[in-house]
Amino acid sequence: xxxxxxxxxxxxxxxxxxxxxxxxxxxxxxxxxxxxxxxxxxxxxxxxxxxxxxxxxxxxxxxxxxxxxxxxxxxxxxxxxxxxxxxxxxxxxxxxxxxxxxxxxxxxxxxxxxxxxxxxxxxxxxxxxxxxxxxxxxxxxxxxxxxxxxxxxxxxxxxxxxxxxxxxxxxxxxxxxxxxxxxxxxxxxxxxxxxxxxxxxxxxxxxxxxxxxxxxxxxxxxxxxxxxxxxxxxxxxxxxxxxxxxx
Length: 247
Description:
Layout: E1 3-6, H1 10-21, E2 28-31, E3 48-51, H2 57-64, E4 73-76, H3 99-109, E5 113-119, H4 127-137, E6 141-147, E7 160-166, H5 196-203, H6 214-222, H7 226-246
């Protein structure tokens, strides 16, 4: 049940190792190479693989959603800079557009389920059309939604594109977790009026081994909101259960 985490940034990679040691996310190995240097054979033996892993948001989200750690899945949040409204808008011409590298690994290893995330403006650049065309060409059924961080009571919108690719064709999945219809909160809460530096200090109460500097701030800012990802995962799980019952 070992997990694989691929994260190029050394600060975020160390954060991952500390979260693994603390038992917050699934045990596994952290690979600091660029995804472009990862080969299919490197992934043999891993049950779950997390690419562009950041500080473990997807792994934590799967736990929140009740996804068993021994159930195969891949996740990834490709770099957003080529498509972000705050970037230069170079799109596919930007060298940080790493979907082709991830798609190559998916094509070679054929994981049964892939979850991913990207900034919403990427849709306008054709990012989702390209990804779905690639995945559907591999035999995956795909779905997507744009969800906001405010859906998990965050004090900002943070529109993100969430997608799933499924090759399992409707098999019944295992149990999943909810608390009164919402994701169970296992993290510390932060009041809405908390200044950003203070919020980071609260969220990083777990010793991550990082100094409170720009690198640590960037890691948190670039992370997904696990509670929203968990809602998306649970919606997928419920839809597959419904399809299995209907069949």
